Protein: Putative upstream activation factor subunit spp27
Amino acid sequence: MAEPSSSLIRKEIANILKDADLSSLSSKKVRKLLEESFKLDLSSRKKEVDKVLMEELAKVEKAGGDADEDEDERQEEEKTKETVEDGSQSDSSFETPEDMSPPESKKQKVSHKQPEIIGDEELARRLQEEDTGRRTRHGNQRHAHKKAKKSKTKSERSKKGVKTGYNSDMVLSPELAEIMGTEKMSRSEVVKRMWQIVKERELADPKNKQFHICDDQLLKVFGTKRVRTFSMMKYLKRHIKDPDLLSDS
Structure:
């Protein structure tokens, strides 16, 4: 059989592509189909067949693309038509600004309060209450002023170094004076010195450091062997006397 012409090969390839699955089609498969159709070996014309195949594939793809564009345009026209029709229907029920006038505003209620009418007795009572209130406020202010002045005077005395009851010198009993080394001392100094003595003599209770064990000298003052150190003042106050009270007696 004579060799097929290029136009005949092109026509046959176009027929093959018309009904073929392009996703699974290859140039080798097309060439075999051509050889079966022409009953010839086309190995020597492989490049020619591949070239024609590529050209025909391009035509098929272009034709498919144009068809897709035509379909898209058709769908777009239908959507536009539907939109226009819907718009014309909605226009018939659309309210104009005149139709949408706001409801009448509610009138604000105006309250006309009647003036209060009181008698002479009621007027006198109210005036008396106001006068009493003014005197009470004035009295409270005077009391607050006196209290502030008194507090200020007390604070000034403290700043000037005036001794108060807790830091003024007191008369000590002979037993406590023997421990302190002096006959007069303030309460605060007595407590401070007693803490030092407990520490210096190592009298803290090893079982409970909040207590101390009295030696013979401290036993004369405290009267008990074991004393809670933080509560020592309740024992010491019997040995501390105010000199003013002693002079009066």
Summary: The longest strand covers residues 169-172.
